[in-house]
């Protein structure tokens, strides 16, 4: 089969080459990939730092061409959306059936390929917060891929949603996705009404400021660290006898929270197919152009998700 492999001598550290077909284990289905999406962590870290000859890629959508030998998962011919630690940027991928969601017949697999990491992380992070109907939820890094899904899902869940972005020009688009208020200055978080939950995607000063906005018994889910900065909490911020006590910080990693993820991906795919969830695809091209697409994503010239079509 053909696959994009890591090649540090090629533009964008990627080369389209012939490699052996993957051999599924008993609990894996073999999927013919139609489209995959690029994630920030892949283009910033996985590809430039990865081992030469390996096939990267977390998100892909396609059709099952060999069902899992143990009888789990969907049958041959089923359109699916998949998640895995690697192997998505290829004509075929072997994927654990617990990480497969089914897709409605006739749905465009391109936008649906953008769901697993970004929408899956958004949904699971909101689950960690707990019930959000009628509550206040804060999202940092709201203009990124995970942030945009979080806004939509939190608003759909009945939350009052506050979006934090460093770019005031994004305010209107974030409101269209469900944000009820926009914050562009971290200092302003000291003055907003306390929130019940935070999906924190930036790290550093954003995490510290967002934690300070938590209400009593509030939960901050650290689901991203795009700033690359560490956190320094001021003295007293974590005192248990503070006015707003028992505030929690929960770490998060999607692949360590995979139980039931296939069902979540199925639900997200159905929402997308019905037009009720917008993956915000800003760039769509074929896989001969993946190096260019990755560069544009690194340079923050893609205001949404990047989708790559294989066939």
TrEMBL record:
Species: Streptomyces durmitorensis
Stretches assigned to the Enoyl reductase (ER) domain: 9-308
Protein name: Zinc-binding dehydrogenase
Cross-referenced InterPro entries: ADH-like_C, ER, GroES-like_sf, NAD(P)-bd_dom_sf, Zn-ADH-like_protein
Pfam families the record matches: ADH_zinc_N (PF00107)
PANTHER family, alphabetized: QUINONE OXIDOREDUCTASE-LIKE PROTEIN 2, SHORT-CHAIN DEHYDROGENASE/REDUCTASE
UniProt-listed SMART domains: PKS_ER
